[in-house]
Amino acid sequence: MRTVPLLLLLTASCASLPSRPATEAVSALPFIEDDFPRALALSRERGKPVFVDAWAPWCHSCRSLKELVLKDPALARHADRFVWLSVDTEREVNAAFLERHPVQSWPTLFVLSPGSGEPVLTWVGTATVAQLEKLFDDAERALSAGGDGLEAELAAADRAAAAGDRAKAADALARLLHVAPADWNRRGRALESLATALYTLADPERCARAVRTYAPGLERGPSFANAVAMGLSCAESAPPESAWRAEALRELEPLGWQAVGLPSVLADDRSGLYELLCGLRSEAGDAAGAHGCASTWLGFLEREAAATNTPAERAVFDAHRVLAALALGEPQRAVPALLQSEAALPGDYNAPARLALLYRAQKRYPESLAASDRALATVYGPRRFGVMEQKAKTLAESGDAAAARGLLEQVKAEASALSPRPPQVVRLLERVEKQLAAGSARTP
User: Fold this and answer.
1) CA 163, 34, 319 angle in degrees (round to 5)?
2) Angstrom distances, CA of residue 92 to CA of 106, 127, 238
3) Residue 420: what pLDDT?
4) Which residues are bridge partners to 54 per DSSP?
5) In angstroms, rounded to a whole number, what is the distance separating the alpha carbons of residues 156 and 149?
6) How does 328-346 read in b/e, with b if 16+ C-beta sit within 10 Å?
7) How far apart are CA 411 and CA 379, in angstroms?
8) What does the alpha-carbon distance between residue 157 and residue 167 come to, in Å, rounded to a whole number?
9) Rounded Cα gap, residues 412 and 202, in angstroms
10) Phi, psi at residue 191, to the nearest 5°?
11) Quick check: 29 and 69 in contact, CB under 8 A?
């Protein structure tokens, strides 16, 4: 359901998707692109809330949501419920929106009040069509403060989370899960929201404990998979010496293997689970298990990509194909797919940027540098700094330390000038500072 740690992970939908025509589909919903003032004006004029998809071109879960969920014709019947806004968080034109509604994880979905434009519900990650339809209902309930009983309590928790009071939301959701009957149809959704709130609050123990307590009783579907993935991520992120961590991972890992096999879960989310599970095998020193996991993961991605109907759908799987190939120790396995995406989507910087990483892993330095330059010709926004950092690493490994250092100094100067600085830029600057302080541009 969400892209929280690393390339992550949680999201939800179906791996067995209905067939689509070979031509590029358009969104089933009338999204306004990158024009928050227009969307807000329409919202006030029509008295309808704004549904916002805040995304980034490099975010695989964002692309999965756009290509494999929002284009589903089943959503068309909801077109009149909201004013629909798509916000590319990398574009300067959206700076005012992001200052008012900061994004920490991608994608983030917002529902904004038609009066104040303030959020009444936020959702980190993607969702299936069925989950989106429930979110539409929940958003309208949170907006009206209507309903009673469990639904009213969930709406209050949604409003608290949307207002930025994650602690209040987490406490409300924990109480709700404690008293709600096992067959409550929002139970899985409440657990997903609780785990997300606790992850955001940097409380991994409480997050993992909540998932361990409630996930086993959930129906095996997207909410179960999302909650388990978040619980695993929380436990994995805790310091290795934490007394509770090992037991939590032992309990949650088998649930992760259950979730990864569920056909009702988005392929992107299943891939995120594979990423976690393979990493846990590697951490445990199980080289054979980690290798077998990576092989299964990459094979899964290759089959899913082969079943798509358009280049944009196929490219959804590129990011994880790169990770799986690297985890397997066979970076060359992902190169043909990236070359195919670059040829089919010439305006998309992602394929050449990822090719640069694959070529560097194979010590094919001239090809890596050329791919970085192709990416730099079209990349925009904060992602540009990541492409430059990647090129600097290639320069350093190929023996040109002076050029690598110069490029890192350029990254530092340009990224430091940003205000405000997105979270991914803050993390990048920390990495660059360490590399410069070490006196070289070698990979940390």
Assistant:
1) 85
2) 17, 27, 35
3) 85
4) 87, 108
5) 11
6) beebebbbebbebbbeebe
7) 14
8) 10
9) 28
10) -70, -40
11) no
What b/e sequence results for 258-273 when a residue is b if at least 16 CB atoms lie within 10 Å of its CB, and e otherwise?
ebbebebbbbbbbbbb
Question: What's the CA gap between 198 and 205, in Å, rounded?
Answer: 9
Do strands 108-112 and 50-55 pair parallel, antiparallel, or not at all (unpaired)?
antiparallel
pLDDT(207) > 50: yes
Distance CA(172)–CA(156), nearest Å, equals 8
Which position has the higher pLDDT, 363 or 13?
A: 363
Tens of pLDDT, residue by residue over 127-170, are 999 999 999 999 999 998 766 799 999 999 999 999 999 999 99
C-beta separation of 365 from 394 below 8 A = yes
- In degrees rounded to 5, what are phi and psi of residue 62? -60, -45
Q: Which amino acid is at 213?
A: T
**What type of residue is 376?**
L
Shortest CA distance to 276 belongs to which of 244, 249, 243, 247?
249
- Gyration radius of the chain's alpha carbons: 22
- 177 contacts 187 by C-beta, under 8 angstroms: yes
Q: How far is CA 228 from CA 105, 132, 167, 233, 358, in A?
A: 18, 19, 21, 8, 30
In tens, the pLDDT along 302-339 reads 999 999 999 999 999 999 999 999 999 999 999 999 99
Tokens of 360: 């560097």
DSSP assignments along 248-297, one per residue: HHHHHHHHHHHHHT-TTS-HHHHHHHHHHHHHHHHHTT-HHHHHHHHHHH
Cβ neighbour number for residue 241 with a 10 Å cutoff: 7
Two structure tokens written together for 321? 């194909």
Whether residue 21 is predicted with pLDDT greater than 90 in this model: the reply is no
* DSSP sequence for 141-210: HHHHT---HHHHHHHHHHHHHHTT-HHHHHHHHHHHHHHS-TT-TTHHHHHHHHHHHHHHTT-HHHHHHH
- Helix, strand, or coil here: 85? strand
Residue type, 30: P
Measured between its terminal Cα atoms, the distance across the chain in Å is 30
**Cα separation, 258 vs 253, whole angstroms:** 9
8 Å CB contact between 66 and 20: no
